[in-house]
Specification:
This protein is of the alpha/beta class and about 325 residues long. It has nine helices and eight strands. The protein folds into two domains: about 180 residues, Lambda Exonuclease, Chain A, CATH 3.90.320.10; about 140 residues.
Length: about 325
């Protein structure tokens, strides 16, 4: 059955035990159990929280652009307003010169920050300081404009600048709230580095990754976008092993292949998380070849329908959710 689609979760089941995988293909004999149900609930909760991180960080990015635009606009309007004020007393002239220097310096550093946003922390303290400096500049310019009551246009421009500064301050405060919420959730889920590129929230809205070439499909728990590239993460509940299970490595390899085929970018590695413990699995050619061999073997089993248990471990059968319907169970 070369055209038979195989899911990444099927690859994991096959890696655990071919017979357990075979039994899972029958809808009438779908495995159930408290551990399975608990795992699905925990997965759903994690997916919902990661979705909230995605949404918060998307809004944060929009707010950053709003703050940046308002700060730049207020600076430019303030600068134009200052040019309308004729030189007065020496001290007043010095204040206006300093204000102009502050505006130009703030604009320069804001532009530098914007150009290197990938290297700077979002809503960084540097950006906050610069926005406050612009605010101080605008207030200084506004106070100076009051020295000449007949400069109506200058006063109007400074009022506009001040209004935009108030707007920037409001959105800045709102961005703090979003940032704190996202960071708190990231810390709770131990996802403290990389952008959350994809999340499987166990709903129809979660995109299904597919490979037409290998007839493979699946949904990783989530995908992080790091400096090294796209990294799939598979989170497992239950006991924490000394090392990653073979079946879980195969499943992670399937997700790496799907990202390579569907997203056009080969992951350098993948992550398997058991509670607080994390394992890095390199996605190299040897792992990819092993996965392709297993996919071919699975299709052979679908053709021959000759499937048996591949181990002699009673403990493995005892932990299998299909032990009650398995004709070769050791438990």
């Amino acid at each position: 059955m070369e055209d038979e689609w195989i899911s990444a979760s099927d690859v994991e089941k096959f890696g655990y035990c071919p017979l357990s995988w075979w039994l899972s293909l029958s809808k009438e004999e779908e495995a159930e159990g408290e551990n399975l149900k608990k795992g699905q609930e925990e997965h759903q909760e994690m997916g919902d929280k990661l979705k909230s991180v995605q949404e918060s960080e998307k809004k944060l990015n929009i707010l950053e652009n709003i703050i940046f635009a308002l700060a730049i606009s207020a600076s430019l309007v303030s600068f134009f307003g200052l040019t309308l004020i004729f030189p007065g007393p020496t001290l007043s002239f010095v204040f206006r010169a300093l204000s102009l220097i502050w505006i130009l310096a703030a604009l320069f550093f804001l532009i530098i920050t914007e150009k290197h946003r990938d290297k700077a922390e979002k809503t960084s303290f540097e950006r906050i300081i610069l926005i406050l400096a612009i605010g101080a500049t605008i207030l200084t310019g506004f106070s100076l404009s009051l020295l000449r009551e007949d400069d109506v246009l200058a006063q109007i421009l400074h009022v506009m600048s001040l209004s935009w500064l108030i707007g920037a301050s409001y959105w800045l405060k709102h961005s703090f709230t979003l940032k704190n919420e996202a960071e708190s959730t990231r810390e709770e889920l131990k996802v403290e580095d990389g952008d959350v590129k994809y999340v499987d929230a166990l709903d129809e809205e979660s995109d299904l990754l597919i490979s037409e070439k290998y007839k493979l499909r699946g949904r990783p728990d989530y995908i992080l976008e790091k400096d090294e590239g796209l990294v799939p993460v598979e989170v497992k509940t239950g006991r924490v092993p000394k090392g990653p299970f073979f079946s879980h490595i195969l499943q992670l390899a399937a997700y790496c292949l799907l990202i390579e085929e569907d997203m056009g970018e080969k992951p350098p590695y993948g992550l398997i998380r058991y509670g607080e413990t994390e394992f890095d699995i390199d996605y190299d050619e040897s792992l990819k070849e092993l996965l392709l061999e297993k996919l071919e073997l699975m299709r052979d089993k679908l053709d021959t329908e000759e499937v048996h248990r591949n181990h002699h471990r009673e403990g493995k059968c005892a932990n299998c959710s299909r032990r009650d319907i398995c004709p070769e169970s050791l438990a």
